[in-house]
Amino acid sequence: MSAVHPIAEQFETREQQREADSLGTWVFLATEIMFFGPLLLAYLYGRTHYGEGFAIASGHTHVGLGTLNTALLLTSSLTMALAVRSSWIGGRRAVTLLLAATAALGIAFLVVKGIEYRKEWEEALVPPFRFVFSGEHARAVEVFYWLYFLTTGLHALHLTIGVALVAWLALRARRGEFGPHYHAPVEMTGLYWHFVDIVWIFLYPLIYLLERWR
Amino acid sequence: MNPAPVRAYVGVWIALLALLALTAGSAFVNLGAWNSVANLVIAAAKALLVAAFFMHLRRHASALVRVFAAAALFTLALLFALSGADYATRHIAPVPWSEPASATQSSSR
Question: Rg (Cα) of chain B, in Å, rounded?
Answer without folding.
Answer: 23
